[in-house]
Design goal:
This protein is mainly α. The protein has two domains: 207 residues, no CATH class; 30 residues. It is 81% helix and 0% strand. The relative contact order is 0.19. It is a multi-pass membrane protein. Efflux system for nickel and cobalt. Pfam families: NicO (PF03824).
Length: 239
């Protein structure tokens, strides 16, 4: 199934490259704009492949007492940062790509920064679970987590942006990035809402046992914190 997703993603990418080439050669906006909505499909399928911090997103939301609105906030912030970082690198720092990107599809420096910051969030969640009374995490924290998890740039957006700029039509790459961001957000929002729904169901099952519910909430927060710290340590020091 994963291979089928990868193959489908490659086909859409090649089709976009062809449309960008045609547009750059004077093909006009009509054909390009007609195909542009496929970028939403491309983004949604691309986000199904390994990576994109889906596990981190689900882990955080499971342990953070987040509601549906906050779950969407985290996933949208993650999606926007993930794609925007690639656009910014292509537009303003293309000569530095070889420094930032160790190889195609990876960004070691930004990965270390992202995982380090998420590890700090995990440590905070663990400390909070052990020493603070039950509380709700703030909206600002949700946006921060989404930003930190999305710091690693989207490699396919970077490839498309680079291709579009090499053809002299960066506006085509930017428009592609916007619609792709929508598709990525759709997939990550589904993951976020599933995690929130899972936690909500557990809370409903324990609704009549308030003391047990409080303990379960603290336990989930502590486990989420430990997982985030463990992922950060593993990604930074052991990969």
């Amino acid at each position: 199934m994963l291979q089928a997703i990868v193959d489908f993603q490659r086909d859409i990418y090649l089709a976009f490259a062809e449309h960008i080439k045609t547009f750059a050669n004077g093909g006009g906006w009509t054909a390009f704009l007609a195909f542009l909505p496929m970028g939403i499909v491309f983004g949604a399928v691309h986000a199904l492949t390994p990576g994109h911090s889906k596990a981190v997103l689900a882990t955080y939301l499971t342990g953070a007492s987040a509601g549906m609105t906050r779950g969407l906030t985290v996933s949208i912030a993650l999606s926007a940062t993930h794609v925007t970082m690639a656009v910014l690198i292509a537009l303003f720092s293309l000569p530095l790509v070889s420094v930032m990107l160790g190889s195609a599809g990876s960004a070691p420096l930004l990965e270390d920064v992202s995982r380090g910051l998420l590890g700090a969030i995990g440590a905070w969640m663990l400390w909070s679970a052990l020493f603070r009374p039950p509380h709700h995490h703030g909206e600002g924290e949700s946006v921060a987590v989404g930003f930190m998890a999305g710091l690693v740039p989207c490699p396919l957006t970077l490839f498309v942006m680079t291709f579009a700029m090499s053809r002299g039509v960066p506006e085509a790459g930017i428009m592609f990035a916007i619609v792709m961001m929508t598709g990525v957000a759709l997939t990550l929002s589904s993951v976020a809402l599933s995690a929130v729904l899972f936690r909500t169901r557990i809370e409903r099952l324990l609704a009549t046992q308030r003391e047990l519910l409080a303990k379960a909430s603290k336990t989930l927060e502590a486990v989420a914190g430990v997982i985030l710290v463990s992922v950060a340590i593993h990604e930074i020091f052991m990969r």
